[in-house]
Amino acid sequence: MKMYFSQKADTVQTVEEDFTPITLKESIEKTHRALDIAYAGFNNATDTDLIDSYIYEINSLQKKYKHLTELAALESASEQEPSHVHSPIRALVSHVFS
User: What letter would DSSP give residue 86?
Assistant: First the structure.
């Protein structure tokens, strides 16, 4: 739980954070949306400090997105099973009796 102070008359707002685990696909989609938002902010920023902030955010999100997509590629590659299992004994027997 995080507490935020409002700029209006010292009121406190409590915001519940959701710590529900998300899938790799959901994480990729969330990062992609954040990247789109960061690009939009960058395109509309006029203050140099804000522009620098968006540049750092975009670079960070790009690295995160790249990492997540590489994980997804590895995950999908490991899920694919070969159509046949190579057996060294079968290869030896077929070699001897051919």
Answer: -
